[in-house]
Specification:
With about 300 residues, this protein is α+β, with helices and mostly antiparallel strands. The protein has 2 domains: about 5-125, D-amino Acid Aminotransferase, Chain A, domain 1 (2-Layer Sandwich), CATH 3.30.470; about 135-290, D-amino Acid Aminotransferase, subunit A, domain 2 (D-amino Acid Aminotransferase, Chain A, domain 2, Alpha-Beta Barrel), CATH 3.20.10.10. Helix content is about 25%, strand content about 30%. The strands form 2 sheets. Strands 8, 9, 10, 11, 12, 13, 14, 15 and 16 form a 9-stranded mixed sheet that branches. Strands 1, 2, 3, 4, 5, 6, 7 and 17 form an 8-stranded antiparallel sheet that branches. The chain starts with 6 loop residues before the first strand and ends with a strand. The model has no long low-confidence stretch (mean pLDDT about 95).
């Protein structure tokens, strides 16, 4: 069967996947001045559903505000563009990438007054980590997480992720599957593209905002789902060594969803397998995003 041609929403109209091109001197390509979101749509009994669409759109516009990027679109219009892109491509499960960028052939740091474009892409996407079900290995990175004195960690700006790329590359070169980054104060912050949780004696702990983390939407979902299950969740400063003695550790994120971490710095976490609380939350999260938990159905935008 011939694969259906994919389309990208680009400044208000759909174009073919291969047509979505910019000049090599585009400002956001040269300087990393783009902004973006990562969103997922899931297959449900009522058709595809986009997970927490309004929250992702809100954060996209917050990032634009932080970076002073004048977006040529409203939140309502962007939400419609995202829905239309998933529908246009006939996808019942996918990863969605809204992206705002300075679409201008320009050498020079100052982007003020330059054209801003917005695109929306939707692509088929499975598990981010190949070993998601059985758990992954991590390495505490020598690269610290950026902080607000350097760049805004609460914004999803393209340039922010050079920090993440360095950490992730280092971890993989050292034989781990992902990195864990510390804050400039030495506390556990997050993964290159994921928030992190640990479980100790049935209590769930995740780094607080003071650790220069991105306030992840999946992170917030995990906290709310866990609390609905009657579990205690605390946001605290976490020392690196606390991870080593935890019963369970896991990542959360749009791409990673919930992914168990079974080894850190060559040290086995718990029994070296996905723990019972992590497994329970993974199953609960799957029920929420696929529309099987009616208590959180307002997080779903059906198409």
């Amino acid at each position: 069967m011939q694969r259906k041609e994919q389309h990208i929403w680009f400044d208000g109209k759909f174009i073919g996947f291969a047509e979505a091109q910019v000049h090599v001197l585009t400002h956001s390509l040269q300087y990393g001045s783009g902004i973006f979101e990562g969103i997922r749509a899931y297959r449900t009994g009522n058709g595809p559903a986009i997970f927490r669409l309004s929250d992702h759109v809100k954060r996209f516009f917050n990032t634009a505000e932080i970076y002073g990027m004048p977006l040529p679109i409203t939140p309502k219009a962007l939400s419609k563009a995202i829905i239309d892109t998933v529908s246009k491509n006939g996808l019942d499960e996918c990863y969605i990438r809204p992206f705002g960028f300075y679409n201008d052939q320009h050498i020079g740091l100052n982007p003020m007054g330059k054209k801003v474009s917005v695109i929306v892409a939707a692509i088929p996407f499975g598990s981010y980590f190949a070993n998601k079900e059985k758990g992954i290995s991590c390495k505490v990175s020598s690269w610290q997480r950026i902080n607000s004195l350097i760049m805004p960690p609460e914004a999803k700006g393209s340039g922010n992720y050079l920090n993440s790329i360095l950490a992730s590359m280092e971890a993989k070169k050292d034989g781990a599957e992902e990195a864990i980054m510390l804050s400039h104060d030495g506390y556990v912050a997050e993964g290159p593209g994921e928030n992190i949780f640990m479980v100790q004696n049935g209590r769930i702990v995740t780094p607080s905002k003071t650790a220069d983390i991105l306030l992840g939407i999946t992170r917030d979902s995990v906290i709310k789902i866990a609390e609905a299950k009657g579990l205690e969740v605390e946001e605290l400063e976490i020392h690196r060594e606390e991870l080593y003695t935890s019963d369970e550790v896991f990542f959360s994120g749009t791409a990673a969803e919930l992914t168990p971490i079974t080894k850190i710095d060559s040290k086995k976490i718990g029994n070296g397998k996905s723990g019972p609380i992590t497994k329970m939350l993974m199953d609960a999260y799957s029920e929420v995003v696929t529309g099987k938990n009616k208590d959180f159905e307002d997080w779903l935008t059906y198409i």
